Amino acid sequence: MCRNIKILYNFEPPATEEEIRGASLQFVRKISGFRQPSKANEAAFFNAVELVAAASRNLLDSLVTSAAPRDREVEAERAHARGRQLRQRQSLEGA
Question: pLDDT grade, residue 1 (50/70/90)?
Fold first, then answer.
């Protein structure tokens, strides 16, 4: 999975349209191999982004869970902590 695509489900507040579109853009970039499409592929590329975003919104709206919503700040801190640990291990291995 693309490292830049984050989990969007079961957060309080819910995922925004901007977050969904950002994840959709990353997904289309990953599968197309284009960071920025050529003029010839631009319409198809951005149409795919919109279709993936719509499907993602539909999925997020349809899912159900009995789990408590995740807190964005807590999850962000966990991600930062994992990053710090990874950098520490890499610096120790490189030393």
Answer: very low
Token pair for residue 15?
A: 């995922």
pTM of the model: 0.77
Three-class DSSP labels, the chain: CCCCCCCCCCEECCCCHHHHHHHHHHHHHHHHCCCCCCHHHHHHHHHHHHHHHHHHHHHHHHCCCCCCCEEHHHHHHHHHHHHHHHHHHHHHHHC
Distance CA 90, CA 83 (A): 11
Residue 19 CA to residue 6 CA, distance in Å, equals 9
pLDDT tens digits, residue range 39-90?
999 999 999 999 999 999 999 999 999 999 998 888 888 888 988 998 898 8
For residues 36 and 49, the answer to whether their CB atoms sit within 8 Å is no
CB atoms within 10 A of CB 56: 19
